[in-house]
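re: that chain from earlier
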Amino acid sequence: MTRVVAVRHGETDWNRNGRMQGWAPVPLNETGRKQARTVGRWLAESYEVDRVLASDLLRTRETTDLLLDSVGDRSVSFESAWRERGLGIYQGLSYDDVESRFPNYGLSETAYRETEATPEGGESFREVKERVVGRFEELGGGDDETLLLVTHGGPLCMLLGHVKDQELTESLLNHHLENCAVTEFLVNGRETTIVREGVVPTHD
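^ sequence. v structure.
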């Protein structure tokens, strides 16, 4: 059985200011660094992590480094499979701008119902789900272990919906995860159970 403890990255200025991040190399802000340190201490007290998987984008790399300050030195694999949606030409625009001008590519119900819509130079929601779920389904075949997964809000919403057997649009509409929220999955062969969902630990 594999325990997957998934953490969304810490806050960035683009999160705070409502800008579409996609694959942009946006660093954590001070709040995000504090969130990651707090969650790192909580993880160290709650789990014995065997190894770490993470998105290879800057904000998840920085979050991972801060988590490991408490969790301890572990083998880390930074992988593009865990990235947020590639937004192509809309990356960096504000949420409001995209919603008013290009609603099929934003973060609203209109966009969530357009799961096949593909921004120029980017990915559709369907493509993101396929790469994220495909990689997730590879995790349960090894020895019993606890994996720490550091990723993004979109992929985590899709994973939660997948485990709950929801359609993609429903997954996106029904889930929202705060920065550094923790979601825990137990993977036992083909069966996956959600142990906790979107919990924001407090330590101090």
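The two ends are 32 Å apart (CA to CA).
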